[in-house]
From TrEMBL:
Keywords: Cell membrane, Membrane, Transmembrane, Transmembrane helix, Transport. This is Carbohydrate ABC transporter permease. GO terms for cellular component: plasma membrane. The chain crosses the membrane at residues 37-62, 101-124, 136-157, 169-192, 213-238, 271-292. It is found in: Cell membrane. Residues 101-292 form the ABC transmembrane type-1 domain. Belongs to the binding-protein-dependent transport system permease family. The keyword Transmembrane helix applies. It comes from the Bacteria. Its main location: membrane.
Length: 306
């Protein structure tokens, strides 16, 4: 006489032996399955967003090397039948692109460095020095960041006319240093306000003055954040259009965005030449971003790692 078998499924599930619930196989639930599916969905969404961002750049690249007749025959989405560089050459020669490129590099570089330096000094006084009326000063700086540029045009135009800096690159440099440093001061003042007091007190006990504390303690620790500000200030200044258009009227002082817009006045608004001008204006900022990509990544992630 054989011994009765034990229904292990019923034991595991707690159901009656021989019932439908007991005969149902026990599924091994994997808690990581849902997480893995969510990761794939997030990856697919990120790829979709990346394609949407890259689509205009690819469209500019395709049409920059396409002849006007090719564009008229096949449309903007077709691959060029032959490499056509006359649009790039025409824009390069017509606007004297090397001069415009140097103006944009010079203005953006000086503004980025000057705005970061002033932001550090202001934020050190507000965030660490704890000057009187700190809260109201930060609120005033925040309100200054909210002002549209159109409000500033006439007062600045009148002021630079009076001092003889109209149609001078330094007028644009001064304006953008003030605008960018206002944002940088607001951001860094919040960062420096949470700076460890123990570190500052230890430096003061060692005999370090305020300038030594700024250069030897605060600046090295906040270098990743300052690198991010430097990169963004450069790119933001490079892409500015309204103020350079207003204050730089001569051809020798204009920047790359103003030179691209000047194609309308020169009646060169065929699509291929316009795409070529946009490509030439995009390449320097793209190269700048690729060079400092690692610095930007380290600066953004520095605050997340202790």
């Amino acid at each position: 006489m054989s011994a009765p078998t034990l229904d292990t499924t019923a034991v595991v599930t707690g159901a009656e032996p021989g019932s439908r619930a007991a005969r149902r196989p026990v599924r091994n639930r994997r808690p990581g399955a849902k997480k893995k599916a969510a990761d794939w969905v997030a990856l697919g969404f990120a790829i979709l967003v990346g394609l949407l961002i890259a689509a205009p750049i690819l469209l500019i690249l395709i049409n920059s090397f396409k002849s006007p007749s090719d564009y008229a025959s096949n449309g903007p989405l077709s691959i060029p039948q032959a490499i056509y560089t006359d649009g790039i050459v025409a824009f390069w020669d017509r606007v004297d692109f090397p001069v415009k490129l140097w103006n944009s590099i010079f203005i953006s570089g000086v503004v980025a460095i000057g705005a970061v330096a002033i932001s550090v000094l202001n934020a050190f006084a507000l965030g660490i020095g704890r000057v009187k009326g700190r809260t109201w000063i930060v609120v005033l700086i925040l309100l200054a960041n909210m002002l549209p540029q159109e409000v500033l045009l006439y007062p600045l135009y009148f002021m630079f006319k009076e001092v003889g800096l109209y149609d001078n690159t330094w007028s644009v440099i001064i304006i953008f240093i003030v605008i960018q440093s206002a944002f940088g001061t607001y951001l860094l003042a919040s960062v420096y306000g949470t700076f460890p007091k123990e570190v500052l007190e230890a430096a003061a006990l060692d005999g370090a003055g305020k300038w030594r504390i700024l250069t030897s303690v605060v600046f090295p620790i906040s270098r990743p954040t300052l690198s991010v500000l430097l990169i963004f200030f450069f790119i933001w200044t490079w892409n500015e259009f309204l103020i350079p258009l207003t204050f730089l009227v001569s051809n020798a002082n204009q920047t790359v965005p103003v030179a691209i817009a000047s194609l309308q006045g020169d009646r060169l608004m065929d699509v291929t030449t316009t795409s070529a001008s946009a490509l030439l204006g995009l390449i320097p900022t793209l190269v700048f971003f690729l060079i400092f990509q690692r610095t930007l990544t380290r600066g953004i992630t520095a605050g997340a790692v202790k």
